[in-house]
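Thread: Newbie trying to understand structure tokens

Hi all, I'm a second-year student working on a class project, and my supervisor (Dr. K.) asked me to get a predicted structure for one chain before our next meeting. I've only ever worked with sequences, so writing a 3D structure as a token string is new to me. If someone could post the tokens and maybe explain what I'm looking at, I'd be very grateful. Here's the chain:
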Amino acid sequence: MVKHQEPLKTQKTEFALEGHRPCHACGYDLVGTPIERAIELDIAVIRCPECGTMNPLVGTPALGPFASRAATVLTLLRLLLLGVALILVFNFADWSVSSLGRSVFNEITRVEIDSFIESTGSTESEIQALVRVNQPEADLGDLMTVLSLLEERNDRLNMGPPWPLERNQILEVFIFSLLFGSALSMLLLPQRWKKSTLIVFGTGLLTSALALSFLYLRYPLTLPVSNPELGPSQYAGVALIRMFAVHGAIICLLGLVISSMVIRPAVRIAFLILVPKEHLHGVDLLWRVDGLKRRIR
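---
Reply by user tm_fold:
Sure, no problem. This is what the structure looks like when written as tokens:
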């Protein structure tokens, strides 16, 4: 805004402002306002009809209040996306802590479990555990003990555990955790990678802990498993979910942290390879945010 002790002498023109430009003083949108010429300065000016301020029509128009409004909208949108991402991460963590046990249960039959529960056992610990699990007051903790002993028994006989964790079961959880961790890291892009990694780690740790807590509350160790008609093996799926819950939480957390550490370098390399260097200035933020300087190819 040009300031003078005396009012500027202007001359009317036949033109009017077509684009949007806020007044420097009050922010009024000057679109459609007649353009005048300041005689002494020989520049085009626009007199604000709201406050009377002379606005020079030179250079790139200032965004004024539109910038703050746009920034507010973008900030709210980013917060909304972060909120949605956190909800999705929690749902994913809740799925992770139960998916491994559920997958294992789908791979086995109850025949082997039933036959072991109905047996007398071959060691002192097996005998005691089998007696407890067949009592009317047997609970989920007793069944988990029996399943652990069954796994140890098959290991001793070199038969392998009855519920091996297959590679595809682990990979499924790990791949999804990589995707969620990458999305979180990119949404936290204004933060440096170390800080964003710590945030992702804290988020993963918190959501995994909450998912485990809800799972343990849903299926407590004191859950009765005695059923005269079906037997305790009907709760084997629940027991396996609890037994492998921590495994799923650890895989989920590892995937989130690893992806948050490698996604930004991977994206930068992809841009350098795929995008012509004359167009890379639009994504310089990927380098600046981590204190790096983009190399010119």
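A couple of things are worth pointing out once you decode it. The CA atoms of residues 14 and 35 lie 7 Å apart. The mean pLDDT is 82. Feel free to ask follow-ups in this thread.
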